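Incident review: delayed structure delivery

Summary: a single-chain prediction request sat in the queue longer than the usual turnaround. Root cause was a stuck worker, restarted by the on-call engineer. No data loss occurred. The affected request and its eventual output are reproduced below so the record is complete for anyone auditing the incident later.

Affected input:
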Amino acid sequence: MKRASSAQGILRLLVLVAGATLSLAAKADPDPIEPVNRAIFSFNDGVDKYALKPAAQGYVAVVPLPARVAFSNFIDNFKDLPNAFNNLLQGKVSDAASDVGRILVNTTLGIGGAIDVASEMGLEKHNEDFGQTLGRWGMGPGPYLVLPLLGPSTLRDTAALPVDYYSGGRHLVIDDVPTRNIITGVDVLNKRAALLGADDALGEAALDKYGFVRNFYLQRRVSLIYDGQPPREKFDDEDAEPGAGSDQGEKQ
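Output delivered after worker restart:
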């Protein structure tokens, strides 16, 4: 027991040290390889413009809305398993139990997850991943990264991707690789189809599309890690004068 406690203490210390290091690096410069990131962003944007977006438009033209909604529910049912896993790691036991309840209800009463019966019963849908779990443990985001084809990320969230993959319900339930790949491909089209129209608005509203996406991603990740209630940012002058800088708002 003492050895287990010592090992847990060492692990927690390592996470805190790594988190503090990444946090300091991110505050100094959240995007230290911006030229490289911008190049990858342009590549991804081109793939989307000439391949993914037209494919998503064809998908919408062929697949009726009820079928797309049913498929989204089906995919979300798989995601409740890693949601439960990460909620448990974050100490949110009631949320983890709710996620397990969602799986049981939607898999049975919801016809394999095609119908989201659990939400109608008051079992809230969560959105958790291992990157958020590391953030809750105190690990900072580290430098901002743009991954080829995958898009916005950070060093912490990129390191968490293998855990997200292997803890994913789809990977655990479906053994046949070709079937799993087909489902993944349709999932990508389905997600892109849901964003049709939003990208046009983004292009018209943002003078710097890259900067807008980067800032939105980083702010959203902070919000997700703290369940919509991120800690208030501390300013140096607040330590000297209590209340000073209180009109600066909260860090999003």
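Verification: The CA atoms of residues 63 and 243 lie 56 Å apart.
Action items: add queue-age alerting; document worker restart procedure.
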